[in-house]
Amino acid sequence: MSLRDGVIDGDLQTYYRSLLEEAGDDEVFVTQSGSYSGVQALGLCEGIRDELIRRGFKPNEYCAYGGSDDIGMVAAAFGIALAGGASFGLQNYVGADSWTRFIRDTGARFVVCESFIVEKLRDRLLEAGCEVEFIEITAQGSILAPTGSEAFEDRHVSYDDASVVRFTAGRAGAAQGIVLSHRAQFYSLAKMAAVYGQRERGRYLQLTPTTDVQGIGMLVAALFRRETVIIYWGKPTTEGIVRAMEQHRITDLFLPSSQMVKLARSDAAAMADLSALDRFVYGGQKVSAEDIMDAYDLLDCDFAQIYGSTETGLLMWLSPEDHRKGDSKVFDSAGVKVPFAGTEVIVQDPRTGEEMPPGEVGHVVTKNPSVCVQTLGYDAPVEVVDGWRDTLDQGYFDEEGYLHIVGVSRDVILYRGFVMYAFDVEKVLLDMDGVRAAVAHPISDAADGEHIFVWVALDEGVQYTEEQLGSELEVVRGPWYRPSRIQIVDEIPDRDASGAYDKQKLRERAEAIMAQ
């Protein structure tokens, strides 16, 4: 079972079984309900596999699972795989209405879950006309009402069959399922395992919910590294995470960038014994170079930053060696390509499809075995051209090969066939004295496709008119860049906890304004 090149030589259920069998009586999971060896965990997975098959579950069917973060959710995900199915988690943070859409969109006939999920879902599924069987389990993975005792063999499927589905909100606001094959998921897991590195007697702290594809993926990557997985229970807090790190002698974990910085600067971390910590992996949010350097100095362990997505897999990273350089320009980047065969990342001109030279901004696109080529739900179809998929980010490579993200490609504005970047509009306005904030995005127009709408907040005492701001854009960028509307406000609305603007919500506001 080699992870070196990420090339799969068996479906994922083969690997799941092998990992647990190799662990034997050694501890592989520590959860709220106790400690579980490889043998014990495999027994729970096989129990769920057998119950699914007894009830008529077929290979390559989709199956939902949901519940609390304990061994039961691991057993459910693995058990569905052993039965030859493709799993998708019912994440607790999205709610029963979204779960119903997920089940409807996949056509799933079975849900493996704890009783509280049944109570939330049953009536909604009936109203939606979905006929579903619930296989109720405990948080510890035991089946509450098994239909028999007959045991079955694992079912095996093609490498290119669906393995997992992750549902997101989608660009249109409706549920979109990102479907990953066994081949794609394995390649992604192998890259993730490489980023975390190998260590003796590693103990990985699992903070991402096990009903999330990324959570179960990080958990499996830890098993690939032969580490014990400590599944955090309850709502993660800085103090709670630090307490778990100290109690369980955690060697490695992942947190979003801003939470990593918050933890590093906390009083709890300063007073705790975190000497077992070997590598802290972070990503998913933009934080300043100063914040990263501060956290690195405070925690005194290896750091690794990752960049990628569910749709494309892991693409770029800042290695521990990069962090040791202490170069703020490096910390402002998404890193260099993960050193893994088969992953290609370029910056492309959307007008011509040509690769952009260093320093020139374009679309970040990738070709690699992790790329998602199938979606479920109501969003736009996946656009994969000759194996290349757009990440929906804008960026550029510097001369040293570090990728710098400057915006998102979904902010591209198409006006009468002319391609404009929202980033370019924002930059011109932010370069004007007295402009405190500027956010540009497209709005729909029946005649021309899309127009530019811009929100602007000015410094106190500064007075610009819409005409003056529009004229500056026309002079610097050309006549196509004059917005249809510039809305000058005291504060630009719809900013989330990370500080980013929700452009979907802003677009809805803008189109309501234009409709008046």
Automatic annotation (TrEMBL):
Keywords: Ligase. GO terms for molecular function: CoA-ligase activity. Residues 425-494 form the AMP-binding enzyme C-terminal domain. InterPro entries: AMP-bd_C, AMP-bd_C_sf, AMP-dep_synth/lig_dom, ANL_N_sf. Residues 33-371 form the AMP-dependent synthetase/ligase domain. SUPFAM superfamilies: Acetyl-CoA synthetase-like (SSF56801). It holds the Pfam family AMP-binding_C. This is Acyl-CoA synthetase (AMP-forming)/AMP-acid ligase II. It comes from Denitrobacterium detoxificans.
